[in-house]
Amino acid sequence: MLKRKIEKQLLNWRNTKERNPLILKGCRQCGKTWSVNAFAKEQYKNVIYLNFFENPNYKEIFSGALEVDHLTMMMSVFLGPDISFEANETIIILDEIQECPEARTALKFFKLDGRYDVLCTGSLLGVKGYGEKPASIPVGYESILEMYPLDFEEFLWANGISEEIIIMLQGYLQREEKIPEALHQRLRELLLQYIVVGGMPNVVQNFVDSKQMNLVLQMQRDILHSYQDDMLKYAEKSDKGRIRDCFSSISKQLSKENKKFQYSLVKKGSTASQYLGSLQWIEDAGIISRCYNLTAPELPLSGNAIPDIFKVYMNDTGLFVAMLDDGTQFDILQGNLYSYKGAIFENLIAGVFQKMGRKLYYFHKDTGLEVDFVIRYWGKATLVEVKASNGNTKSTKTILKNKDKYHVEQAIKIGDYNLGREGEILTVPHYMAFLLRGV
């Protein structure tokens, strides 16, 4: 059974006195349904479960009056007489709530009534062209929590690395001390496995149980096919082909030396006006994230972001690798990445930062200066260079030498080496990027 960080967040919600109905939002197959059901069974005496995707007839419960007593009576009609509604002891789970807009409207009435907790899941929630919108979105009467595939720390838990070891790693980072060689090598190995396995829960569990990479790859490609099916099924007719073309171009976009997203690579002669909405569809579905260029590597980063100049990364590293040629997984595990290794490790670190809740930014100038990421770290703008193995940090050093111009005092180099420091640059192994938590 995989341990997920969302469990703690759900428990915090449960312990909040004036809690709203909660919507757990995330891409398909990231583990929402399993997590909410496990949480509900542990925390509540009575669990009422409605899945609108598997049982479309449940929509009829919300087709009439939305008064809470009427809704619970209708649930009893559909689910049978054995279910029980007790105030403060009952949770109602509305799975795939985007399939029933009226159920989302009803969240306001559950909040005002206050007797029962309501926990919902949503895939493709708010995605353009997906289903009908609620007649009334219950603004102020619902809370939304984002869920992602497993991050690297959760992957470590799944593979037997205890929280005590992670706390120990955090101590090494704070003291800037080298990691003991045996632990260093084990974590390097797990990092390479995470790159190819990724964080989709079923994929991770299969890998932990079987260690069979052929099965992992088949499951990942099944997920990718399901995403493409969603694009064809739910997108508006005029957008279907463009969304698919945008999605297919991601690996090409990241293979360039300058990884700025270029619409001309989606289809020859294409423009932003033609494909901007298609890219937004994929982002709203939770499949990709954008990393915005900055006018200057200074705080506040959001204030310096250029909205129409960005890179695009896949949110799950395993799915990204599965989009590449057969044999890529074996090459990565053997350390043979050749010219594409930069794209793979950049995508990895983008996913690590994104799952930490960091918004993604980078810095690129036409003069040739380029830094992979810029983050806020312990109150300061911090340059982050990502190297597949090792390499120079020419742009970072140039910026650090020109403090009067760029106002940057610290940088981090993430690569395949142990923890250490080179003057103003902290060197961090790939597997410790998730510990860069200071803001």
TrEMBL record:
Organism the protein comes from: Oribacterium sinus F0268
UniProt domain DUF4143: residue ranges: 228-389
Record lineage: Bacteria, Bacillati, Bacillota, Clostridia, Lachnospirales
Presence of keyword Hydrolase: yes
Protein name, UniProt field: CfrBI restriction endonuclease
PANTHER family xrefs: ATPASE (PTHR33295)
Single GO MF descriptor: endonuclease activity
SUPFAM superfamilies: P-loop containing nucleoside triphosphate hydrolases
Pfam families xref list: AAA_14, DUF4143
Domain AAA: from-to ranges: 19-156
The entry's keywords: Endonuclease, Hydrolase, Nuclease
Record bears the keyword Nuclease: yes
